[in-house]
Amino acid sequence: MKEIITGLLALATLTGGTAWATDLNGAGSTFGAPIYQKWAEQFKASHPSVQINYQSIGSGGGIRQLISGTVDFGATDMPMTNEQMSQVKNAKVLHFPTVLGADVPSYNLSGVKQQLKFSPETLAGIFLGKITRWNDGRIKAENPGVNLPSTAIMVIHRSDGSGTTFVWTDYLSKVSPEWKQRVGANTSVNWPVGLGAKGNEGVAGLIKQTPNSIGYVELIFAIQNHMGYGLVRNSAGAYVNADLASVTAAAAGAANNMPDDFRVSITNPPGKDSYPISSFTWLLVPDSIPNAAKRADLKNFLHWMLTSGQGYCAALAYAPLPKQVVAKELKLIDQIH
Amino acid sequence: MSAPASIGVTERKPDGLFLQRLKGGDPIAHAITWLAAASVLLVTVWLVAQLWMQSTPAIHAFGFGFLWSSEWDPNAEKFGALPFIYGTLVTSALALAISVPLGVGAAIFLSELAQPGLSAVLTFLVELLAAVPSVIFGLLAIFTLVPLVRDVIGPALDKTSGVFPFFAGPSYGVGVLTAGLILAVMTFPFVISISREALLAVPREQREAALALGATKWEATWDAIIPFARLGILGSIFLSLARALGETMAVTMVIGNDPKITPSLLAPGYTIASVIANEFTEATSNLHLASLILLGLVLFLITIIINAGARLLILATTRQGSAT
Question: Is the ipTM of this complex over 0.85?
Fold first, then answer.
């Protein structure tokens, strides 16, 4: 009996001892999940009283949970629409860009050793099903000296809804009026041609399995799996290799015309070093948080994430935010009340 | 058996409590098992109600047109189920067309003809196959079936397309045929396992009588054993069909995920379960989400219709069986 009482007392002290700790719950984007989980762990190391729980359930799920009020913050790869924002009760949703991602065109062409170069028009033509052979004049013109086969191009795209698809289709919508009108930008679209595969790993696997195929994968996935990919011509006319520097440069290039709410696509930005198929991923935070402890902790976390937290990006192959964007976001934190 | 039991009770007669307990036990057991049975009904009703409620926006927007519209465009918010219904039915039919003859044949061999030792080893393997998770079958399909269909089976079938138009066209490796083949592999163990049980449950006398009448071993199997086990074999087919209709992971990995209706089996397709798994997490618009849930309801209805059809078929064949 005595043991039970001591046990209960110990339990009471334990729970009493952690009563002042706060839990911040977030959910959403799978693309951002590795860095969010890393941040949660690192932030707890320096702020032991704050436990951040992040569930990677997909951007759509993150937005829905934020609307229904079951999480403290959401995360998405595609900014919320006005209609979705109006469904959040008693608060305006703030979008905080956290890191950058990019899509790269990857292909399987035996006998081609060089990195192929793609113009926006060629990529749109291939994915619209208008350029159907590898030795099409438009591809040849950009890749002089490359021995391109006369075989049919097999297009491979994501079958699952994903931020990667949103970035890719958003880019094609910007560079091709026909794409914008026929297909548009979304996490899932009605593809004119091609085969669908699930996840980055599915697309990569199918590209590897299918001779003469082309598809798009997330840059981090391509880097971590040592996949080859093509160069893409940016708005300044330069063919750019996607890497962390050229992706950060894209955000810097777009920073000048960035709206105050950060709900902006940065595909096809200005700047000669910018990789054109780049994108933000965002945390979604309500501007009004009634619980004072949660509000303070979340503001602290956002500040930490934009400053010290950015240092963890490169190790996980995420491109960090450019300075201009960070400076602007730090001001946005003050709007949370 | 009944005589010793009644003696047991009479011996215990002085103990009134025991008798009371014995009498009271029945209603309690009845109530408990009734509750267990009622939960089946409860879950089914709850499932349908939830699917119906969550898909209301799509039902309002598309009505019955949802069933025969073949457009699926999340951007234009136009959703139709036809390509998915088509893909689901075609892949499942293809799977059963392969797995049923193979499975029933294997079951007959294992239960009737094989030596006991061989039968035990093969039965163990079949049960092992039935327990393999579907994602493993998906991987197997990607690494072996896809290249095989792309380079060997596809081109060979394409040559026959003059006779069979549904084999026309280029072969990408992924597509309806590959999905059907992997589903055949996945349903095959179910057909064998359950058919074998059904065949083994046939009374010895049935076989002995046929043999006594001068039938050969095969004649006894074909004319006396199989008709007797017919219900169990049919049951194995319908259970396999249910698995094929609802299979998600392995199919998604190899079907090509393209919501178009093409007559060629070599072309990519899409199934209901696959599109739900693919698009559910990132469906941001309400109508998109509701349409996916409505697809779930459609799949549920397809399963009900097929199951009801199966009952009728069984009913019809049993009546026929007892008449002859």
Answer: no
